[in-house]
Amino acid sequence: MTAHGSVVKSSAANLPHSIVCVVGARPNFMKMAPIMAALSKIGSKLTVHLVHTGQHYDAAMNHQYFEALGIPQPDVNLEVGSGSHAIQTAEVMRRFEPVLDERLPSAVLVVGDVNSTLACALVAKKKGIPVIHVEAGLRSFDRAMPEEINRVLTDQMSDLLFTTERSGRENLLREGIADTRIQFVGNVMIDTLRHNLPNAIPVTQILKNAGNEAFLNNQLGYAVLTLHRPSNVDDADTLRTLLETILIISAKLPVIFTLHPRTRSMIEKFGLSAMLETPNLLLLPPQGYLEMLGLMQGARLVLTDSGGIQEETTALGVPCITLRNNTERPITVDEGTNTVAGQDPARILAAFKEVMRGEGKAGRVPEYWDGQASTRIAAAISVWLESGQVV
Ligand code: UD1
After folding, report:
1. H helices within the chain, ranges in order?
2. CA 57–ligand 1 middle distance (angstroms)
3. Which residue puts its alpha carbon closest to atom 22 of ligand 1?
4. Same domain assignment for residues 150 and 29
5. Pick the residue with more confidence: 171 or 11?
6. Domain match, 342 and 281 both
7. pLDDT in tens, 285-311
């Protein structure tokens, strides 16, 4: 055990404690917002530090989320930026270690499945600092997906694992994780959604801001599209086929396409920009959280390869077609509005036609997606820290 580990051990039963919370990329921000708020209510016994790894750095992917979600400014920004998976992960690790040496936290809390999640969990665990993972146990069973590797390895290193749906526990038990470490608390993303829904920005306002108020004059409604998975956007043929399918859809239902930086650069690299110049397809830059909420809430349909959007559309009751061959969030299919259609145009168009016939899934809101997940997490962490069993 490191010197650091022994510090944690000896102080474990005697509050005060401190937790270092980590965010790195866009999907982390909406998960961390309610957790930070709930942890702050524990009181002066617990100090919370926020570390931003800087994995996402563009203002459009970043600052506006902190502001809209009311997340406190990070105490530390590691400013790692982009790179290969190895470089990005290694750089986060290298820069995160001194932060732990300086702050000596009782635990490190990570969310989700991005490279920053894995990197910070690994640094903490190797230093003998307990790791808390929020959104544990999700599995796509597709090890070609970088996030799946991040999920499996982070969970293996975690001391306290909070799950969003009941399937998470089964997956973790199968991988040998002790039942006593797992707690089903619900979905913190839905805490954020419920909290912010009254302030969602309506689509009319978004179109006005984009200088394109006439886009929805047809009364048909619209679909929202997001794409960024390497498996969809990094290969020219796959991306072209997907975009051709979207053009077929847009001829029947206008499509608002919010462009992730990775996707924008791939479209340009593969020379596909011209095919997107059609009146029924509106390209927008990455949207803020309240804008995205408004876009989804008003949509007839959402097409996506994001994980979080599958959950948000289920909570909103809006049909979702997932442009991936699998999902690590099966409850969105079993109980929610999600249809996994993969990359095959025939399957995507069949699912689209169902929605247009009014036969899209209505779904219901899953258990514990009730806006209280972060409160359950904070309560569990408080008990866990006070129990003195943190190492
Ligand atoms: C990452 C996460 C993914 C998450 C997604 C949400 C991993 C393995 N992947 O993927 O799980 O769903 O974020 O967005 O961690 N870029 C910018 N500006 C930015 C950020 C990225 O221009 O602020 C560009 C860079 O060219 C970069 C590319 O996007 O190389 C990819 O960024 P990166 O963070 O490596 O992965 P994402 O595809 O965003």
Report:
1. 3-11, 26-40, 63-69, 85-103, 115-126, 146-157, 167-174, 188-196, 203-209, 230-233, 236-252, 261-269, 289-298, 307-316, 331-334, 345-356, 373-386
2. 9
3. 261
4. yes
5. 171
6. yes
7. 999 999 999 999 999 999 999 999 999
Q: How confident is the model at residue 143 (pLDDT cuts 50, 70, 90)?
A: very high
Domain count along the chain:
2
Q: 130 and 212: one domain? A: no
pLDDT number for residue 15: 61
- Tell me the one-letter amino acid at 385: L
Question: Residue 391 domain-assigned?
Answer: no
CA of 241 to the centre of ligand 1 (A): 22
Say which residue the tokens 């006439």 belong to. 214
121 lies in the same domain as 168:
yes
User: Residue 143: which CATH number?
Assistant: 3.40.50.2000
> DSSP characters for 2-38?
-HHHHHHHHHTTSS-EEEEEEE-SHHHHHHHHHHHHH
State the catalytic residues.
228
Spacing of C-alpha 88 from chain mean position: 18
Q: 58 CB under 6 A from ligand 1? A: yes
Does residue 286 have its Cβ closer than 6 Å to ligand 1?
Answer: no
pTM: 0.94
Same domain, residue pair 381 and 341: no
Are 23 and 121 within one domain?
yes
- Residue 25, ligand 1, Cβ within 6 A: yes
- Please give the structure tokens belonging to residue 306: 């994001």
Range of the structural domain that residue 284 is part of: 199-356
85-103 and 115-126 are packed helices; what angle lies between their axes, rounded to 10 degrees?
40
Task: Establish if 362 belongs to a structural domain.
Answer: no
Q: Are residues 161 and 268 in the same domain?
A: no
Q: How far is the CA of 171 from the centre of ligand 1 (A)?
A: 26
Q: How far is the CA of 23 from the centre of ligand 1 (A)?
A: 13
CB 148 within 8 A of CB 167: no
Q: Does any ligand 1 atom lie closer than 6 A to the CB of residue 55?
A: yes
Those residues whose C-beta lies under 8 Å from the C-beta of residue 136, and which sit 6 or more positions away, are: 151, 154, 155, 158, 161, 162, 163, 168, 172, 182
Instruction: Tell me how far apart the alpha carbons of residues 82 and 265 are, in angstroms, rounded to a whole number.
Output: 14
On whether both 172 and 207 belong to a single domain, the answer is: no
CA distance 126 to 376: 28
Supply the pLDDT for residue 14.
Answer: 54
